[in-house]
């Protein structure tokens, strides 16, 4: 079996796949599969510094957020009814000021807002609550560990809640289709619905796995920190986020290439969490995922595989 760097994400009624040279977003609308392809290299492939181990994780995460939001926005727009009369005056004003750059500006704004909300919910919140543990113990290792457990609990609760939403369940089915298509490619089988159908919806390189590993790595790293004032704690966690992301990224890449038992144990909880973020897809959804993957493979030129 061979491993590939190609990955993707589910979007509204579709799947985005990303290779070394291009991004393809396939969306089913009625009986038609619409494919949008962009020739964009990942940030980590554009600059040697961005590709350095433990450095590349931060840039890969930011790059993935940008591409992901862009693909998600595109899929949503396909199902929107354009009504020029109902476009707000503020939006028209922004169009006049920024012109063709408006969409990119809004996309980057969305990425920044997403990062800020994530930091508030998953870092500032648990740190604030864990502060009350000092009433029971002064042991900083214990306090940091409790903070980490709170972060994991919030993350799992968030996944449980959104997995109950009808529209999200549909996206999770496409998420499962994405993983099955990748498995089919890695097993060097012809990319057909029949071949992809038999594979699991779980994959070690999944974003769910990455986020869970971020939680675990942050527990380990933060456990070495003392417990000073609240604001210094928050700043220390924000400044250490690139370190956490860098280490987590290397682990997830290793998990995708290696069958090492220690690595497998480390990523196993993340695989279990994918039972929340993936669902068994139907054949029409597998067809979309395969169409997206085939579109990306056209531009890989034999680069898609890495030996284990």
Automatic annotation (TrEMBL):
The keyword Transport does not apply. This is DUF1385 domain-containing protein. It comes from Thermoanaerobacter italicus (strain DSM 9252 / Ab9). Keywords: Membrane, Transmembrane, Transmembrane helix. The chain crosses the membrane at residues 105-129, 141-161, 206-225, 231-252.
């Amino acid at each position: 079996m061979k491993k590939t760097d190609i990955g993707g994400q589910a979007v509204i009624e579709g799947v985005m796949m990303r290779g070394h040279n291009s991004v393809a977003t396939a969306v089913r609308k009625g009986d038609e599969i619409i494919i949008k392809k962009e020739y964009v290299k990942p940030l980590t492939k554009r600059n040697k510094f961005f590709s350095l181990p433990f450095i590349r994780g931060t840039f890969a995460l930011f790059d993935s957020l940008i591409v992901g939001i862009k693909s998600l926005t595109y899929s949503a727009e396909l199902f929107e009814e354009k009504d020029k009369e109902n476009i707000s005056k503020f939006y028209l004003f922004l169009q006049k000021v920024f012109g063709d750059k408006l969409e990119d500006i809004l996309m980057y704004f969305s990425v920044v807002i997403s990062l800020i909300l994530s930091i508030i919910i998953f870092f500032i919140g648990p740190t604030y609550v864990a502060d009350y543990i000092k009433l029971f113990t002064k042991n900083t290792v214990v306090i940091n560990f409790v903070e980490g457990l709170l972060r994991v609990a919030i993350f799992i609760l968030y996944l449980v809640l959104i997995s109950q939403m009808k529209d999200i369940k549909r996206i999770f089915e496409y998420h499962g289709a994405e993983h099955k298509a990748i498995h089919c490619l890695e097993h060097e089988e012809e990319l057909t619905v029949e071949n992809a159908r038999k594979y699991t919806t779980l994959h070690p390189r999944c974003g769910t796995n990455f986020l869970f590993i971020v939680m675990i790595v942050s527990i380990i790293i933060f456990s070495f920190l003392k417990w000073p004032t609240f604001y210094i704690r928050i700043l220390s966690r924000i400044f250490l986020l690139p370190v956490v992301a860098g280490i987590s990224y290397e682990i997830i890449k290793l998990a995708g290439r290696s069958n090492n038992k220690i690595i497998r144990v480390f990523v196993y909880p993340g695989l279990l969490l994918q039972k929340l973020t993936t669902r068994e897809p139907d054949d029409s959804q597998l067809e979309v995922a395969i169409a997206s993957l085939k579109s990306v493979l056209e531009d890989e030129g034999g680069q898609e595989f890495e030996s284990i």
